[in-house]
Amino acid sequence: MATPENPNSDQEPIIPDPGQDEILGPGHNYATVTERIGGVVYTPWKRWPGKWWIGAVISFGFVNLLMLAMYVLFFHGIGVWGVNIPIGWGFAIINFVWWIGIGHAGTLISAILFLLKQDWRTSINRFSEAMTLFAVACAGMFPILHLGRPWLAYWLFPYPNSMWLWPQPRSPLEWDVFAVSTYGTVSLVFWYVGLIPDLASMRDSAPHLWQQRIFGLLSLGWRGSAIHWSRYQKAYLLLAGLSTPLVLSVHTIVSFDFAISIIPGWHTTIFPPYFVAGAIYSGFAMVLTLIIPLRSWYNLRDLITLRHIEAASKVMLGTGLIVAYGYSMEAFFAWYSGDKYESFMYWNRMTGPYAFTYWLLILCNIALPQALWSKRVRHNIGIVWVISIVVNIGMWLERFEIVVTSLTRDFVPSSWGTYIPTKWDWATYTGTLGFFMLLIFLFVRMLPSISIFEVREVVHHQSHPKEALQERQ
Amino acid sequence: MSQELTLSELPTIHGAMAEFDTPEELLHAGERAFAAGYRRMDAYAPMPVAGLAETIGYRRNKVAFCVLIGGICGAMFGFGLLEWMTVVAYAHNVGGRPLNSWPAYIPITFECMILFASLTALVSMLAMNGLPKPYHPVFNVPAFDHASIDKFFLCIESSDPKFRVEDTLQFLRDTGAKEVNVVPA
Q1: Could you tell me the residue ranges of all domains in chain B?
Q2: Which of A16, B5, B103, B130 has the fewest C-beta atoms lying within 10 Å of its C-beta?
């Protein structure tokens, strides 16, 4: 991925990848990791990579498209979208589930891999947590835009009002309100707690007074006291422990939106685990889609190494197989249940008007990712990147297929319909993609995108391999 | 010779600070300071160092207990809110289901528990650490900028009954400190 346009190439040589066994390149000490990671933020804007500018400007263009789409939606109402009875849930829920799923890998990397003491998470956890936050922000937009009167979104929360009306807490849609808002809040807390010591490092290494002031405010006066660290580590461990069941519950509740209804193809008990696995699958795909260009643009190959990419590819392969199992069980029980609506639904998925989405989905989510079994493929970063994009598309198609095929062909032929997304559907969707990418571009410029203090711990462990082993046991 | 601090001098000194290059040296110095009877001190490191807080005499970490209480309160709040909403405030018969349909309240109860516990983890950690605190005397030592980057510090505070400026500085030098400083208050 090394390119001659790399802006650092005239000052410093391209730093090589240390290979599949290392999570950190050679020759690092406590000060150099601070310099390298903080240096990305402190690079003067004239030396920012040209690709960063191109990416940020294109993303900003799509943010404007999103604003335009929202304006049209607010002005005309949701009639500008392709949704109508019987397909009341179109792109809004498809994109909501897709974005939430992408967010889940961030929590998985930061919380579950932390509890499992997987040291390769260290240099990608900060970035994935940011990805979670931005993905949840995009996800949260869709149900609100779908309300028709988005300015009344606060009606979703129980609050004392003059009509003395309360939301219906027996409905999975209300559970979603609590699940997603809790998930967004806890992800923000987890991310910020992880950032505090690094913000202090940024404060103390900032070249300009205004940067010192901003980072000084954000770091809350962190001074690295041993007693503070002790409470900090306990709080971080507990947050990881709380986030782990949270992430499973969030996608379970999202799947309940479907599973608790009686629509053929939705009313199945396999939905919660299969949705969670799909979420992690698409999230790891998104992590790979983002970190592969990041490490090349900012010359971070010795911090985000082949080991990280290979480990993430393996997780993708594993969760992809769980998803494949989910698909096959859906098909099996559609036949084995003997329920004619279920079996018709599945037959319709494979041969009906939306059959192309089904077969594309099988190609993207099941067939192509099997290439990751080969070590040669996993070590070819370009191919891994392409597969990660294919999986992102596949997981989007999965949600499209679940929502659209079931709603267009339910029990009675007289209530069948067709769903065709309009240009404003596409504008809103691509607009959130631009919004997400712009936030990622800004994050990489403004905050340390790799956890500096955790990389310092890796430096320490590498200089004391025996002690590190004991600590881990 | 050792010299007793007079009352007028007391508030001008926060403590004596030693600088080290590695966490091992800091751990060792912390151990020696504790063995020598110093109790009011703090160690500073750019990353968590296993066992450092215990070495200088910190025992009771109450974060977990606070989080437990936060989680219990959250669960009670969530469940109580739903019960009150559906049974008391807006008792509305939907499809003949019982008003108190508690199994349907579990997901929200669970989410409230996680939310309250997580916020308690953040707030209790910051509150017990006394953060946010933009000013602290240790920042008066110029080299302390490196405490968040690559250096390790031990600060014995002047409020310690055993603290005598000269003695304590000499003690810190003897622990192998790279540099020793008086911390102005």
Answers
A1: 11-59+135-184, 63-128
A2: B103
Nearest-neighbour CA in chain A from B60: distance (Å): 10
Sign of the CA dihedral running A328, A246, A127, A63: positive
Residue whose entry in the numeric block shows the structure tokens 């608790």:
A260
Sheet holding B41-44, edge to edge: B41-44, B152-157, B13-20, B179-184
CB B114 within 8 A of CB B74: yes
- Residues of the domain holding A295: 7-159+166-186+244-472
Tokens of A94: 């498809």
The residue among A178, A1, A64 whose CA lies nearest residue A427 is A64
How far apart (Å, rounded) are the C-alpha atoms in residues B84 and B108? 14
Q: Give the number of residues written for chain B.
A: 185
Are A249 and B134 an interchain contact pair (Cβ–Cβ within 8 Å)? no
B111:A453 CB<8 A = no
pLDDT digits (tens, 9 = 90+) for B135-177: 888 888 888 888 888 888 888 888 888 888 888 888 888 888 7
Rounded Cα distance between A157 and A464, Å, is 52
What pLDDT, on a 0 to 100 scale, did the predictor assign at position B9? 52
Q: How far is B92 from chain A (nearest CA, A)?
A: 10
Name the closest residue on chain A to residue B139, using Cα atoms.
Answer: A223
Query: B11-59+135-184: what fold?
Result: Alpha-Beta Plaits (3.30.70)
Cβ neighbors of A107 (< 8 A, separation 6 or more) are A129, A132, A183, A187, A190, A243, A244, A246, A247
Nearest CA in chain B to A250: B111
A149 in any annotated domain: yes
Residue A239, in any domain of the structure: no
Residue A1: helix, strand or coil by DSSP?
coil
Please state the rounded mean pLDDT for residues A118-147. Answer: 88
pLDDT in tens, A439-463: 999 998 888 888 888 888 888 877 7
Residues comprising chain A, all counted: 473
> Is residue A203, in this structure, part of any structural domain at all?
no
ipTM of the modeled complex: 0.88
Contacts with A, B 29-58, CB within 8 Å: 30, 42-50, 52-56, 58
Tell me the chain A residues in contact with residue B86 when contact means C-beta distances shorter than 8 Å. 166, 169-170
Closest by CA to B172, choosing from B65, B9, B15, is B15
User: Backbone dihedral region of B130: left (phi > 0), alpha (psi from -120 to 50 degrees) or beta?
Assistant: left
Predicted TM-score of the model (pTM): 0.88
Residue % of chain A over a pLDDT of 70: 95
Instruction: Using alpha carbons, list the distances in angstroms from residue A348 to A266, A300, A405, B177.
Output: 14, 48, 7, 76
How far, in Å, are A193, A343, B15, B168, B180 from residue B3 at the CA level?
Answer: 43, 92, 15, 11, 18
Strands in chain B per DSSP E: 13-20, 41-44, 152-157, 179-184
Interchain pair A204, B148: CB under 8 A: yes
CATH number of the domain enclosing A305: 1.20.1630.10
Domain assignment present for A200 = no
Closest CA to A330 of A388, A393, A405, A391: A405
Contact (CB<8Å) B148/A197: yes
Contact indicator for A134, A184 with CB cutoff of 8 Å:
no
Look at residue A224 in the predicted model and tell me its pLDDT.
86
Q: How many domains does chain A have?
A: 1
Inter-chain touch A220–B132, beta carbons under 8 Å: yes
Tokens 């304590």 found at:
B168
